[in-house]
Amino acid sequence: MPNLTDDIVHWAEQASADAGRVTVEPDLRELGGVVRIGDGVAIVDGLPTARQDEMLRFAGGGLGMAVTLDPGRIGVVMLSPWDGIAAGSRVERSGDVVRVPVGDALLGRVIDPLGRPLDTLAAPLCHRTEPVERPALAIVDRDLVSRPLATGITAIDAMIPIGRGQRELIIGDRKTGKTAIAADAVINQKTSDVVCVWAAIGQRTSSVNRLIDAITRHGPRERTIFVVAEASGPPGLAWLAPYAACTMAEYFSEQGRDVLLVIDDLTRHAATHREVSLLLRRPPGREAYPGDIFYAQSRLLERGARRAASLGGGSLTILPIAETQGGNLTAYIPTNLISITDGQIILDPKLFYEGQKPAVNVGLSVSRVGAKAQPPILQRLAGSLRLDYAQFLELEVFTRFGAMADEHTRRVVEHGRRIRSLLIQGNTQVRPLAEQVAGLLALGENLLDPLPPAAVLAFKDGLAAWLAGECSDLVGRLEAEGDLDSAACSDLVARLKRFVAGLPS
Ligand SMILES: Nc1ncnc2c1ncn2[C@@H]1O[C@H](COP(=O)(O)OP(=O)(O)O)[C@@H](O)[C@H]1O
Ligand SMILES: [Mg+2]
């Protein structure tokens, strides 16, 4: 019979030796409690070491982000529905700032700002997360904007060119085609390798669906991420959306790729920021926006940059959209955004109702850095275009009243009408470089001036097919080099003359 006593003694010795090795530490955790909750924000107490932007977990699985840290009280914006959470509910720190998944798995997906799927597919499998708030690149880590980002819209590519790494504001009243321009810019990346990220903030679900549908049908859907914060969702998600989308976009630019980020729109984002701030009892400033609204938007847009070659040379181009009321560009948010960005595309409701779409106000719109990145041939052709068009707009007012016009004025106006006609471009009908160059060459050589309006339309409609059929050699050269020498230009003009002569008059 085994010696039971010995066994017990042996086991006891073993256990006491193990116990000597095991270090039992107290599990210290701060437990906070909800003081007040409602309208998408909560006041929490009892978390003395919580950090700015920290993710907080509520009992029952709710998520929130710490945005104001006052002694003994934390202001939290909710990132999930808050029903079921009440005063007294428990809150715990997560120990980390709010992060979002980043990676190739997000491409082609429709997700919410925390990376959760909104399409019918499984959650995207990402191996990395990054904080939503990240510092912008230092100046020495940036390079000059030197490569074009073609939007496929002649009025923009020729006269308000955008470069990769630029921040260009699209601004105008509601229903003037702001979203349509940004969508076309994304659709035009079908033929490039630019990764696109679209942040839709507080838009109607039907409009977001229409946009996704258009990009799926005409654009690079497989290379686009849609980050959607619905109008009906928690305000915290709408607030987070542009930062989250920017982090997702930066992942690709850090890998040396060119990325286009559209933020539709920052006016709504500012309104959400104001709503959250007022609910958290921060002091209101001008137009009731809190004092940090400029910082909130500038730190976001500063993240748009062309990275230095030593950092991979990628770029993050940002097209933020802003909505004005009654065309008032001097309101608080529009002026802020205009001062932060590298230029603005201003849309004019009057032009839109007259049928001049895209309704870009060429006189007021500017691009402060894009001209250096413009393909050289467009640069040459666009110089006279801007001038001719501006002259026309000035003179047209007089001719409208039937005033007598001399021969020179008449010619300027007739030429201007051809320019205007050529600049009209339908939704999703993006034009490759060759088509833009051929159109501008025909204008510059006054080939369209003798044509009646119907023939100008026939020219526009038939140009793409004609180029593909008759000029594939020149189109290939143009695409490869972004330029044509003068001999090739003359060749193209001669061919265009034959094309124009064959148009029905
Ligand atoms: N270039 C265009 N040609 C024809 N229709 C357009 C064009 N741009 C926009 N639209 C139409 O105008 C409407 C408003 O455009 P949208 O981009 O949604 O405006 P916003 O974003 O400024 O409110 C849409 O129905 C759109 O299809
Ligand atoms: Mg819109």
Overview of the molecule:
The chain has three domains: 31-97, Beta Barrel (Elongation Factor Tu (Ef-tu), domain 3); 101-371, P-loop containing nucleotide triphosphate hydrolases (Rossmann fold); 377-501, Up-down Bundle (Lysin). The longest helix is centred in the C-terminal third of the chain and has 25 residues, at 376-400. It is α/β, with parallel strands linked by helices and 505 residues long. Strands 8, 10, 11, 12, 13, 14, 15, 16 and 17 form a nine-stranded mixed beta sheet that branches. It has a six-stranded antiparallel barrel with strand order 1-2-5-4-3-6. Helix 5 packs across helix 6 (266-279). The protein has helices at 4-21, 154-159, 178-187, 205-218, 235-254, 266-279, 293-301, 332-340, 349-354, 376-400, 407-423, 433-444, 453-470, 472-481, 486-501; strands spanning 31-38, 41-45, 54-58, 63-70, 73-78, 90-97, 99-102, 110-111, 128-131, 169-172, 195-201, 224-229, 258-264, 305-306, 315-323, 343-346, 366-367. It is elongated, with a radius of gyration of 29 Å. The mean pLDDT is 92. The chain is built from 15 helices and 17 strands. Strand 14 (305-306) and strand 15 (315-323) form a beta hairpin. Bound molecules: adenosine-5'-diphosphate and magnesium ion. Magnesium ion binds next to helix 3. Residues 178-179, 264 line the site of magnesium ion.
